[in-house]
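Intended use. Records like the one below are meant for learning the mapping from a protein sequence to its folded structure. Do not use them to infer anything beyond what is encoded.
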Amino acid sequence: MNGIDTAIKSSGAYPNDSLVSIVVPTYNRADCIGATIDSVLAQTHTYWEMIIIDDGSTDNTKDLVLSKYGHDKRIRYFRQRNTGVSGARNTGLQTTRGEFVAFLDSDDLWEPWKLELQVAVLKRLPEAGMVWTDLKAVENDGQMMTTKYLRRMYDAYRSFPTSEYLFGNSMPLGEIAPRLDKFGTGKLVYFGDIFSQMLTGNLIHTSTVLLRHTRRKQVGLFREDFSAGGDYDYHLRTCREGVVAFADVSSITRRVGRPDQLTAWRKKQLAVNYLKTVEPILSRDRGRIHLPPDMISETLSEAYAWAGDLLMEEGDIRKALRALRTSLHYRTIQPRTLALFLLCLLPFGVGKWLRRRYRSTKSIVGLVPAR
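Structure written out for the chain above:
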């Protein structure tokens, strides 16, 4: 802790002594990072440090951050060559000094009470290593889409229709943070071991997370060999280490529809990297996994079908056939997956024409594996 931090703490300017380190990776987001930083400056929990990792931006991100926020000693700016979001987060993680760590993407916005609530949750639940929340979603033009986006964003929630079904325990939010009850009247904080449930797919949005430093040390860093899906791998490993918590309120606002978010190529990487994440864990930790065998088979079948569909669209027929064959191995009766598999077997000219027709009509005929 530096002299400035010590002086501020002794003056009573901070509501408590829990330093939160906020890791903000960014790349060419000068158009929106200012609003993101402003949402941190508005936090009611004021004892934080922000670590901005500029991952090789070619716009005026550096000038904006240093000119507008360089006077605030809590904000530290670092620039590095472009390595991807996981590499940027890892750079930030290795410089954190706080009792807690938060992640914030540079196009997301926090509610003012976000950190105050989550620090209160982790102090009340010392066994929990992480807490996350729901989120709001707005269009890129600012129009509100929904105030509860988590279950819509992550398909794995289909297997767990309610939070009661997913977690083993809960308590009223107002009991944990009475001053904040007005922001979530009647809402609950859920907690428990959900390692098994996380194997069905991601349930956690990174910008909503607050992580205990001790849990972060157990988990390590993000996988930099994953160009997509690194968040899921990280959160799965976090849940593997013990109890986590979910506060059923929306603490952030996410912009949806930016052109740099989820391309077709990234969707394929998500599908492939999901399998790279899950299969070793299924092999290594089978004794700890408490999902019905049919649920595991269905999850893997859908994942391979999803990967096969995206590989086929990309024209990688050999890998698509392998993925679709594996999907059918896990669950034989799948008309749409079988149709994709047979489509890949057709002669090149015919298959290419039909695949083109398939791509233009798949949303209508319902051949796309759901994830």
